[in-house]
What we know:
The protein is an alpha+beta fold. It folds into two domains: 1-32; 37-214, Umud Fragment, subunit A (Ribbon). The protein has helices at residues 3-32, 59-62, 104-112, 187-190, and strands at 34-38, 53-57, 72-76, 119-126, 131-135, 138-141, 144-145, 166-168, 173-177, 193-194, 198-207, 213-214. The longest helix has 30 residues, at 3-32. It is elongated.
Amino acid sequence: MNEETKKHIKEILEWCYCIIIAIVFALLIRHYIGTPTIVQQPSMYPTLKQNQRLILNRVFRTIKEEPKRGEIVTFEAPSKSYILAQDVDLENPVAVYENEPQGLWNKFIYYGLEINKTSYIKRVIGLPGEHVKIEDNKVYINGKPLEEDYLQKTVVTDSMGGSFTDLTVPQGYVFVMGDNRPQSTDSRRFGCIPIEKLESKVWIRFWPLNLFGKVK
């Protein structure tokens, strides 16, 4: 092998190392700091509309910061989007996660690359230990009506056919709902979400440009 060939091989290897480092760095940023996404469902209308572009903040997950009421979060979708009334256990009103990937490689593909992973965007309504009740088209937290200025004035909150409408949120879980209550599959239907399944907080809307700014 002559010197010219060795030089070309060295250059190729250096480029490969740079590409690998860049990919790893990008994955670390995406997983631990933030990532862009596109709104695909109408469940958060009018706060978020379909095809809007967002930047998600994942630092809170990295530092294990507790979610706050009113924050818009993304989370891994439960295995069952609707739990039948006869299967509901209000002593343990939690969402079902049955499709956990097996094996290190499959976990990397699912959690690291987020391939074949479905996520929902909803708003945090009930916090750990709080009593949530949906009654008379309103949400009550510990017996007091919840002020929800982010909802359209004509929107009412009913059960949406779900059975999780009068419960105490278990420790380590949150109760979430979409702002578009009549078209949101949420905790009313599938139960409370484990905090460990929260992926990010919705931070900034960067498209369309006329709505650029922090999302509330």
